């Protein structure tokens, strides 16, 4: 399964590569990283990439994670990729907006990787 | 006629040594004296009456003055109290302006702190797992594998340290902002200060308004070195200017939804013996009629309840009175605004 992680915090890449090192080593999961909403759209626009699951932060400079979510759900309709939001702002407003825009899940930071792993394995 | 004059008159009348003509003349003089005496008596009585009236009037005036003096004293007390209340209100307003800007920061701080915490928590768990793996490899006798894992542990610990310090810095900057300034100028990295407040203001606003987004640009002069400033105060000014810039681009976005790219640029520059911090936005600009008043206390163009009207006035005082610098503004209505803090080195 290919997973695109979108976050303006660059250390997120190191963290995911560490936390999922076994899954990456066993080729159960494959990760790609984008540091902004715009970069994520560029990545998804490239048709050579197979369908991916997207884990996106919400607060990022430039395009926000919620805008990215709206773009993805509007433009990549058949079938739309799954999008999980991961944010430091776990407030009701953010949650409701994300759900209205079609988010498939909503997790808060600091991230519980054991929970995330369970969710990813359930999808897998 | 008085009894004395009457006695003299009788004596003259009965005297045989004085001629009738002399008697008549003397009696005339006595009559005249009597008339004068009566007149004087009358005048004296009148004067006495007047004196009494005057005394009563004076007494009344004194009482009236005493009453008035009491009223004035009361008014003075009330004025002194009002002045004290005004001073307290002014201090309270300054404090509430500080708290309002702290409020702007709080949400930003929450976001900023959750991110490093995310790394601290997760990299420490990673380290734990890696150490288990390392022990496993050591038990198997795979020293090279164990060494490779040890390097990964080291990297994880470095990340924990890095993000722990980052969280520490965020908390310190928040405390610095809320604390009363100690009025001590200390060597400060203006670039770091500006960048810190830019991030906090941006995330603070994003937390409050999900629809808000703006491109942030920075242009820092790396040759500035340290500048002696009261960092809490200058930080407050920078925060205020950035918050205003974000407000201006947000307002413009409401009327220009398509094709408009809200942009806020923060830059620093060293020119001769001065350092300049500029906050520029491509927002609504400031109308000419408001331009003269922007540094006046309580002047605001924001809707009621959204601005205290003290931000720029306090900023102006901090830069000019507190640091002997200048706060300049250049604006084009509908297009852009740039505020520059110019500080002597």
Overview of the structural elements:
The complex is a heterodimer of chains A (124) and B (345). Chain A has 124 residues and is of the alpha/beta class. Helices cover 44% and strands 19% of the residues of chain A. In chain A, helix 3 (37-45) runs parallel beside helix 4. Chain A is globular and about 35 Å long. With 345 residues, chain B is of the alpha+beta class. Helix content of chain B is 67%, strand content 13%. In chain B, the strands form two sheets. A five-stranded mixed β-sheet of chain B has the order 2-4-5-7-6, with helices on one face. In chain B, strands 1-3 form a two-stranded antiparallel ribbon. In chain B, a hairpin with a 3-residue loop joins strand 6 (326-332) and strand 7. The longest helix of chain B is centred in the N-terminal third of the chain and has 121 residues, at 20-140. The N and C termini of chain B lie far apart (104 Å). The mean pLDDT of chain B is 86.
In short:
The complex is a heterodimer of chains A (124) and B (345). With 124 residues, chain A is α/β, with parallel strands linked by helices.
In terms of DSSP E residues, the strand content of chain A is 15-25%
CATH architectural grouping of the domain at 183-345 in chain B = 2-Layer Sandwich
Low-confidence parts of chain A: none
Strand order, largest beta sheet of chain B: 2-4-5-7-6
SS content category of chain B: alpha+beta
Describe the oligomeric state of these chains in a short phrase: heterodimer
| Total helical segments of chain A | 6
The major sheet of chain A is characterized as: 5 strands, parallel
Would you identify the CATH H-level superfamily of chain A? Answer: Response regulator
Structural class of chain A: alpha/beta
Q: Return the CATH topology of the domain at 183-345 in chain B.
A: Heat Shock Protein 90
Note the main sheet of chain B.
5 strands, mixed
């Amino acid at each position: 399964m290919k997973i695109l992680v979108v976050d303006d915090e660059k250390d997120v890449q190191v963290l995911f590569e560490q936390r999922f090192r076994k899954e990456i080593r066993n080729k159960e999961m494959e990760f790609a990283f984008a540091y902004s909403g715009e970069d994520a759209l560029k990545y998804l626009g490239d048709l050579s990439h197979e369908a991916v699951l997207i884990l996106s932060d919400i607060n990022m400079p430039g395009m926000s994670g919620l805008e990215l979510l709206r773009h993805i759900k509007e433009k990549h309709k058949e079938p739309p990729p799954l999008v999980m939001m991961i944010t430091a702002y776990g407030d009701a407003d953010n949650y409701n907006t994300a759900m209205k825009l079609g988010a498939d899940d909503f997790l808060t930071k600091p991230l519980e990787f054991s929970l995330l792993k369970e969710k990813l394995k359930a999808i897998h | 006629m008085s009894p004395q004059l009457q006695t003299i008159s009788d004596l003259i009348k009965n005297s045989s040594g004085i001629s009738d003509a002399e008697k008549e003349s003397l009696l005339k003089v006595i009559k005249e004296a009597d008339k004068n005496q009566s007149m004087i008596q009358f005048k004296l009585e009148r004067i006495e009456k007047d004196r009494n009236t005057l005394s009563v009037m004076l007494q009344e005036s004194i009482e009236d003055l005493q009453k008035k003096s009491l009223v004035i004293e009361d008014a003075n007390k009330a004025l002194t109290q009002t002045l004290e209340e005004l001073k307290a209100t002014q201090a309270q307003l300054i404090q509430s302006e500080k708290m309002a800007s702290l409020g702007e920061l709080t949400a930003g701080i929450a976001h900023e702190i959750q991110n490093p915490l995310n790394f601290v928590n997760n990299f420490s768990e990673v380290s734990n797992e890696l150490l288990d793996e390392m022990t496993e490899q050591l038990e198997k006798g795979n020293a090279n594998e164990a060494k490779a894992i040890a390097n990964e542990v080291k990297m994880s610990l470095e990340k924990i340290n890095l993000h722990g310090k980052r969280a520490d810095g965020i908390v310190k900057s928040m405390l610095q902002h809320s604390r009363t300034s100690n009025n001590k100028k200390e060597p400060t990295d203006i670039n770091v200060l500006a960048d810190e407040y830019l991030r906090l203001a941006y995330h603070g606003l994003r937390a409050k308004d999900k629809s808000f987004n703006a491109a942030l640009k920075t242009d820092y002069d790396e040759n500035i070195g340290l500048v002696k400033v009261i960092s809490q105060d200058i930080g407050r000014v920078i925060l205020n200017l950035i918050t205003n810039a974000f407000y201006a681009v947000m307002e413009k976005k409401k009327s220009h939804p398509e094709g408009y790219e809200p942009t806020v640029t923060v830059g620093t520059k060293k020119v001769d013996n001065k350092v300049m911090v500029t906050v520029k936005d491509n927002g609504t600009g400031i109308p000419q009629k408001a331009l003269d008043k922007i540094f006046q206390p309580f002047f605001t163009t924001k809707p009621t309840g959204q601005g205290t009207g003290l931000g720029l006035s306090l900023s102006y005082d901090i830069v000019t009175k507190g640091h002997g610098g200048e706060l300049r503004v250049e604006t084009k209505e509908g297009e852009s605004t740039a505020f520059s803090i110019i500080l002597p080195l």
